[in-house]
Please model this.
Amino acid sequence: MTIRILCVGKIKEAFYRDAIAEPMKRMGRYATTEIIEVAEEKAPEGLSQAEKEQILANEGERLLGKTDERDHIIALCIEGPAWKHFPARRSCC
Model:
């Protein structure tokens, strides 16, 4: 099994790279893991709601372009609730 984590933009800050390293190491015992970064759209200030939605749609298309039709996709959002357990654990084990 391969777990691919897709994200928009580069993970630049060392704090985030360090925070990602430990869970990636743990998951690596059970599955091949990789992080795939797609380009972030430039979003100048003062965009209309329609322009913001178009930017999100473009980024979403780039993310979907990195997936396969056989992939199981779990979308996460920073505003979403925190998970105590990874949901795939219940569905695959």
In short: The first helix runs from residue 14 to 27. The first strand starts at residue 2 and ends at 8. Residues 26 and 33 are 10 Å apart (CA to CA). Helices lie at 14-27, 49-65, 88-92.
